[in-house]
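ugh ok fine here u go
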Amino acid sequence: MFWRWAQPYCGHRPHSIMVRAVQAVATDSGAPISSLHAAASVIFVRGPWWRIVGPGEILCSAVTAQSDDDAYDALKAAFEPHG
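structure:
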């Protein structure tokens, strides 16, 4: 399992949100947790916003990074297995 938040101030995200997202993906997909990788980069735009920009990689707004529910949804999408 691997993840990173690109902006240092986002390092306060509770570890439990990331663990919950990767565990949900592992359960739903049957993939081992060790095979799931993700990266999130935070950009400064208005409002909650996130997009998948590549396999296991998302861009998200600071608002999304600071919201437990939005961060979970974005991370879950990033952890989804990709071909």
